[in-house]
Design goal:
This protein is α/β, with parallel strands linked by helices. The protein has 2 domains: 116 residues, Aspartate Aminotransferase, domain 1, CATH 3.90.1150; 220 residues, Type I PLP-dependent aspartate aminotransferase-like (Major domain) (Aspartate Aminotransferase, domain 2). It is 39% helix and 14% strand. The strands form 3 sheets. It has a 7-stranded mixed beta sheet with strand order 2-8-7-6-5-3-4, with helices on both faces. Strands 9-12-11 form a 3-stranded antiparallel beta sheet, covered by helices on one side. The protein is globular, with a radius of gyration of 21 Å. It binds pyridoxal-5'-phosphate. Pyridoxal-5'-phosphate binds next to helix 3.
Amino acid sequence: MAEIRPQPGIMDIAPYQGGDSRVAGVEDVVKLSSNENPYGPSDKAREAFARTVHRLHRYPPTDHAALRAAIGRVHGLDPARVICGAGSDEIIAFLCQAYAGPGDEVIHTEHGFSMYRISALAAGATPVQVPESDRVVDVDAILAACNFRTRLVFIANPANPTGTMIGLDAVTRLADKLPRQAILVLDGAYAEYVEGYDGGADLVDARENVVMTRTFSKLYGLGGLRVGWGYGPQAIIDVLNRVRGPFNLSHAQLETAEAALLDRDYAEKCRADNARLRSWLASALAEAGVPSDSSSANFILARFASADEAEACDAFLRAEGLIVRRVAGYNLPACLRITIGDEASCRRVAHAVRAFKGRGR
Ligand SMILES: *Cc1c(COP(=O)(O)O)cnc(C)c1O
C-alpha cells in the first residue's frame, strides 16, 4: 500500500521517551525521572476529583469558564485571554497547528524540551535547533537563526532539562527583535517554583507577539490528570480556540485543577520545600565532585566528567532503586537530570552518588 502515506514530517518524529518507573528485580524504587511533585496534589484537589464521579455521564463545559476565572484571580490575568488544554503539551500543539506548516520554521534551543520539535514536525513545519551558551538560552543565537520563515520561537524559562533561567531584560529583547510574523512562546512549566515570578505574564500583556504556557503537572502534582493553560493576546487565543476540541477537558480535569490552584497554602509549602531540598542536594552532590548549574526548577542537572561516567552512575543509582533521567537525547550525554524528591529520597541520592564517586579510591 505504497499510496497510503502520512503527511510529510510525521515519520521524522522520534516517539517521546517518558521517564522510567521500574527497575527489574529492585523493590522500593523512587522515581526521580519525570519532575513530578513527590507529595502529589493537595487533598482539596483529590476531594474535587472524587466528587466528579457523579457526573461521568454529562458532557463537560466547553468554555472552561470557572477554571479560567480562577486562573485570572490567582494570577491577576484577564480570563478571556486564557486557554486550557490537556497539559501544556496540547497548547504547544495548538500553537504549531495554527501558526506553522510546510515551509515554516519553528525555533527551539539545543537543550530545549522535546515536544517543541515533535509538535512542529506534526504540523508539517521545519524545526530549527539553535545553540545555547553553556546550558543557558542564548538570545543572540536565536535572533541570528530567525528569518522570514520563522513562525514560532519556543523557550522554557526556567528551562528543562538544564534548570537555568534567563532574565526579563533578555526575554524582552528577544520579543522586541523577533521578525514581525513570529510568536515568542514562553513555556512556564516551572514558573511556580520561582518565588515572585509571573512566568512572563506582564510581557504578554505588554505585547502582541508573546504567549505564555503553564501547567498543573509539576508544582500542583497533577501530571497524571493532564491540564495546562496558555495566556496570550486576544487575537492569538481566539485562533487557538478554533483548533481546540470543544470537550478537550473533562469535569474531573477542570474541577481538580481549579481546587489545586485555589489551595495557595499547599502550593507555597511545595515551592518552599523544593527550594530547600534543591539547595541541599546540589551542595551534597557538589561536595561529592558532581557540580550542577544553579537550578530554578524542581530538578538539578548533575554534570559528570564524561558520558561514560554519567552512564555508569545512572546504572549504579538504578541498582540502588533510584531512577533518574539520562539526557543524552537533549545533547547532554555527560549529565543526569535528578528530580527533587522528598527529604528521604534526596538523602538516598546524595548517599548513592557519594558511594559511586568513592568507588575505586
Ligand atoms: C513538564 C513540562 C511541560 C508540561 O507538560 P504537560 O503537558 O503540561 O504535562 C511543558 N514544558 C516543559 C519544558 C516541561 O518540562
